[in-house]
């Protein structure tokens, strides 16, 4: 076993012998000269187009109109008890008629009984229509957005980037990352699309401009 291991590692070392390295002995210089985005126009409009193509509902509002927009969305949904991260701003829910239950008060069974969840995000990628969560500010733990059947996500304008390479530096690599491109769905079984398999069946996004 030891001999096999050394042979494998020897081949790896040989393959990496001509790879440029940084200052540290383990640092590898990674080329970053690829295109960070593809210039497909206004990033906000592009994000809206991609999200809607994924069957997500999208609303555009202002900071002053956010509380009303969230209240309207939850009212249309008929949500009565809604989960939210502990640090989500109270101002978001100033006009919400539903009961807001903070994350720390919920176990898995409690999350499953929620009518939905409201969170922020770490980044929103226009070209792919992807919302990224890293359990940071106003996002809560990962389970918060995977268990409830409805996710209402607040995307502030400065969180929107054009391409994936522009999003990566904004993310904390040591945190659990959740990449959301539309409602959860799969077509693995006989090519029939089934929604809500790996997370929320319904995604609604509010862009704050």
Automatic annotation (TrEMBL):
InterPro entries: FTHF_cligase-like_sf (IPR024185), LUD_dom (IPR003741), NagB/RpiA_transferase-like (IPR037171)
Residue ranges of every copy of the LUD domain listed in the record: 112-208
Protein name: Lactate utilization protein C
């Amino acid at each position: 076993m030891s001999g096999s291991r050394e042979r494998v590692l020897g081949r790896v070392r040989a393959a990496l012998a001509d790879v440029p390295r940084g200052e540290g002995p383990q640092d590898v210089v990674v080329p970053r000269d690829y295109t960070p985005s593809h210039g497909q126009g206004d990033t906000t409009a592009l994000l809206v187009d991609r999200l809607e193509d994924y069957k997500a509902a999208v609303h555009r509002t202002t900071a002053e109109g956010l509380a009303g927009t969230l209240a309207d969305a939850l009212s249309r949904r008929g949500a009565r008890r809604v989960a939210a991260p502990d640090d989500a701003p109270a101002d978001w829910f100033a006009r919400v008629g539903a009961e807001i239950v903070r994350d720390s008060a919920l176990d898995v069974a409690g999350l499953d009984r929620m009518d939905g969840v409201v969170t922020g995000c770490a980044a929103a990628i226009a070209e792919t229509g992807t919302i990224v969560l890293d359990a940071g500010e106003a996002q809560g733990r990962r389970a918060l957005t995977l268990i409830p059947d409805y996710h209402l996500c607040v995307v502030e304008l400065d969180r929107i980037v054009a391409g994936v390479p522009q999003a990566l530096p904004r993310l904390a690599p040591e945190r659990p990352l959740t990449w959301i491109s539309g409602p959860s769905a799969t077509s693995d079984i006989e090519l029939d699309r089934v929604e809500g398999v790996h997370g929320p069946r319904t995604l609604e996004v509010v862009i704050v401009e």
